[in-house]
Fold:
Amino acid sequence: METKVKVGWGALRVLGLIYTPMGAVFLALGVAFWYFLPDIFPLGLVFSLLGGIFLLLGLVFLIAEHRKKKRMEALIAAGRFVWAEVVDCLCSYNVSFHNGRHPWQIVACYELGGQKHLFRSQSLLLPAPRTLIGKQVKVYTDQTLRHYYVDAQPLLGHYVEH
Structure:
C-alpha cells in the first residue's frame, strides 16, 4: 500500500490564502490611485506599500507550506524509515475545529546509539486512543533525523466519518 502525504489546512496556508489576494487587491488599488489620482499621492503610496507587504507575506507563507509538503513527499519517495515506539498521544487544546473538537498528535520515540529521538505526527482529526502506546509506527526520515514524517494512518485504520 502506497503512503500518501496528507497535509491539512495549516495556519500558514490559511494566512497565505487570505494575504495573497488581499495584497494583490491593495497593490492594484495603490497603483490605480497613483495613476488616476496623482494629486493624492500619499493614499496611493500607503495602499501600494500595504498591498506589497501583504502580497509578499502571503506568497512566502504559501511557498513555505508547499516546500514542507514536497519535503514530506520526498522523504516517503526515498523510502528510508525507522520503526519508532508510540510513547504518548497528546490532545492540542489550544486549537479547536468546528463543533469544539481538538486535534491529536502521536508522539513516537526512536533510540539510536543511546540517544532518544522524539517524533510528533501531524495533527489528527480522530482521537488517538491510549491503546496505541507501545505500538510501532513508521517514521520516514532523512539521514540526520531532522526532517521526518510520522505515518500514523496504519495505526488508526481506515475510517469514514458521517
